[in-house]
Specification:
The chain is built from 14 helices and 18 strands. Helix 6 links the parallel strand 9 and strand 10. 53% of the residues are buried. Helix 5 (124-140) crosses helix 6 and helix 9 packs parallel to helix 10 (295-303). The chain has two domains: 44-98 and 409-455, Urease, subunit C, domain 1, CATH 2.30.40; 100-400, Metal-dependent hydrolases (TIM Barrel, Alpha-Beta Barrel), CATH 3.20.20. The protein is 34% helix and 18% strand. It is an alpha/beta fold. The structure holds zinc ion (ZN). Zinc ion binds next to loops.
Length: 458
Amino acid sequence: MSPEPSTLPRISRLAPRSRARRLAGAAVACFLVAAWPAAAQESASTLVRAARLIDGKGAVAEPGAVLVEGDRIVAVGSDAQAADADRIVDLGDATLLPGLIDLHTHLTDEVGVHWEEVLVTTTPAEAALHGAANALTTLRAGFTTVRDMGPTWPYVDVALRDVIDAGVLPGPRMLVAGNYVSATGGAGDARQFSLYVDVPTVRNLADGVDQVRAAVRTNFKHGADFTKILATGAVLSQGLPPGAQQYSDAELAVAVEEAGRWGSFVASHAHGTEGIKASILAGVRTIDHGSMLDDEAVRMLAASSDTYYVPTLYVGVIVPRDGAALGVPEPQIRRSTEMMRHRGASFRRALDAGLTIGFATDAGVFEHGHNAREFAVRVEHGQSEMDAIVSATSVSAMIMGWDADVGAVEAGKYADLIAVPGNPLNDITLLERVAWVMKGGEVHKDNLGQAKRSSGSR
Ligand SMILES: [Zn+2]
């Protein structure tokens, strides 16, 4: 199944909102120019050269050349080489790629603090500050776009997205979940404390179609880009086991209907087979985790032009191994170990069927910036290096509805580019050591010793 053109309305999160623009007003702008001098050179053109280029759609060019003007790519290949650029960045024996995309992050999560303890041990300010640091870490790891699957303190991700869009803080382009919609008990229910304790300012549970509808509306009202719903139990929670369907078919359907009214979509956290199938039938955009795909679920995904499988394999390797150090309680480590048996088999089933597969990690459960470790697990399960890269670039951009702007090295798209020394098609783990990062024409990391710069001539 080849990627279908997106049928989603464009979610214009790529332009700052008025509130964010106010934040970037006079005083802040002065600071910005000092901190990020590249932003001042917006009109100048830069030719970026490297030994090779992987375009994000399955093609390789040798050598690689990309001409950048302002925040966009204006030419690629011989057209770029022929241009009279103001500035040249020569990255030497490196591979240029589009900025990577992770469809499942938790940027505002502090690694080591279990989400079921967040409401009683931390503050929203803490989440926001950790989010700012994690956003920079993620960007410098080569992930220039993320779909963030939600904070525990609702809407902290909305604020983080807005300050990044306004240029106040460096970070990936973000599409955010706001306040995820969860049933009482199990996945997404952060109130894992005494019946007599409450956090009245946080309301993130919805039961029954009316409450689910209200929750989805409230979510969009407060600035979420899409709605995350927890269709099944979770690995990292108490209550309902991950294999069990948690939301009814009717509750899932009303969430999708309501998100559609807002011109958006639903991302479904779904481990168990029944919850996966119910989510596909409801018409969600993504099946996140998708741990227990059987043959029928794979056939349903293959037949659907709107629902995509977005597995998270590395988290299933790291939690059974390092769960205790990551603050995961023992019963939940056991859940993860149990689910690991299914995850690899489901992924291989999806590969064999030729499903379009998005790229995601669940970063935040493990260290932010380790997102690219997902690649090696995929390759171990039989995905080719090139297909894994295409999944993390153009395919994930299409799934987000952002393929006009990101996910490939093409004229007209944002100048979101990364480089690794050597060739990741020979060693996929090179993507774990991204050495150079450009987002929107601005360089955020440059560890390539051989990078040479000159002005005016080549
Ligand atoms: Zn998650």
